[in-house]
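Consider one such protein record:
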Amino acid sequence: MSFRPELRAPLVGWRFDVAIVGGGINGIAIARECARAGRSTLLLEQHDFAAGTTSRSTRLIHGGLRYLEHGEVGLVRESVRERRRLLQEKRHLVRPITFLLPLGPQAQRSALEVRFGLWLYRRFAAARYRNPAGDATAALERLLDSGERWRIFDYEDAQCEFPERLAAEWLVEACDCGAEARNHTQVLEIEVSGGQARGLRLRDCLSGREARIEAGWVINAGGPWADLVAQSAGLKASTMVGGVRGSHIVLPRFAGMPEAAIYIEAVDGRPFFVIPWNGQVLVGTTEVPDRGDPGQVQSSANEVQYLLDSVRQRFPRASVSAEQIRYTYAGVRPLPFVGHDNPAAITRRHFLRDHRQEGVAQMISVIGGKLTTAASLARECARQIGIEVEEPRGTAVVPESSAFNAALQEWAEATAAESGIPLESAGAIGNWYGPGRLGIAQLAKSDDRMRQPLCPHTHHIVAEAAFAFACEHAQTLSDVLLRRVPVALDGCWSEECSAVAAQRIGSALGWSELRVGAEREAFDAERAAFLQKPRLSVPAVK
């Protein structure tokens, strides 16, 4: 294996059947679909794969219960179908989770409406993977404001705690089928000649080298940057994307928090989530129009206060304070531009815009889309450029949690005994990597340095970082610790953790002290820009 990601072959003069601009979950899914069909495929990302909207989401694979309120039955059907497939295919990353929906006397939705919506939602889902909600319901009842009378409903959905890992696995699958993937690569221009997209001018942001490639099709999967990508082709069409900022706060697990996700109305009646996540509690999200630079998006103080107030008012016994917020993060949803400021009313469906009528044939822009439906969007996009794609076959059976956990425990015990990895580390690897865990186990077996934990507070080890550089297209320490092996999302992460991780990874991979220092400095800056400690100027509610 090579651990020197800076040595990337120049692309000068290459030709591809399909060039995809944008390496979020949608762009990666499209690249995977095209490569599977035998098309020469290039995937480009200006920063790192999954560093934008994908890693800044609420981390759910959900059918969209809320979409029923807006009559989007087709989107709900599509979502629950794709959710079932992900539960079958990526069981180590996508897990069933029970949701509790409390309804108080002041709720904007009636019990009858909720009952009907849940009945319809379950009918669409078809699959049975029900988790008992009894203990969680009792815990929530104790947590809620006892001054109100609550009715608590439950339903099943799914969670992907680390969509960054899902993106990494799909990326590897695309490249195993022949795709070429380049992160940290800027598209300078989409070249148009004779009314048709012909190729791209690129700059490798790591080496500074520029190149020109030819492409039969150009797919603009830039997400919130889609309008800027279209402009690089000389398109002067009306705005396609209406950015909507979604902010989240991350709290420690508070006393009484049930082992279930909670979907509850906020202080203004708008629904929000309170979700067990990564040993913490994830609260979100907001919906605020955002026309700024998606790369500089931050949660506003008002949004943070809104989420905090909602938690405190709904769960007064939790005694949550502003000082407990570990960090906040925000992302921009690339929703279709509709010209008004009511984000809740904007469809979550995706659209494929063919630019032929605007004078640029062989170019398509992807508008909208979400984590749950990325694979179905990719199949639709592949069909639109002439690739025959069949709908994947599956069953209505989702693997039972007990069977999956038993198999994982058996693998972890065998791997720990064979390679010398601590049992806890083998279990952590199995949870995140699925089939890829075998390569990591072999790396760990080869060198004592590879078996070291990445920091004193985690069971994840240096071999995972080495695997990310060698096999998952990581180029920087930030790519590893924030996305491939996202231990830096833990609440315990500190400057000490950054120093230890950089030193241990650098030692195992043969980095110079100069590179160790530079990688750590760049990582600390990127993490601080992504995961921010809020400074609240708005007084907290009593």
About this structure: The CA atoms of residues 200 and 427 lie 44 Å apart. The longest helix spans residues 401-419. The domain at 15-53+164-240+348-384 is CATH 3.50.50.60 (FAD/NAD(P)-binding domain). The mean pLDDT is 91.
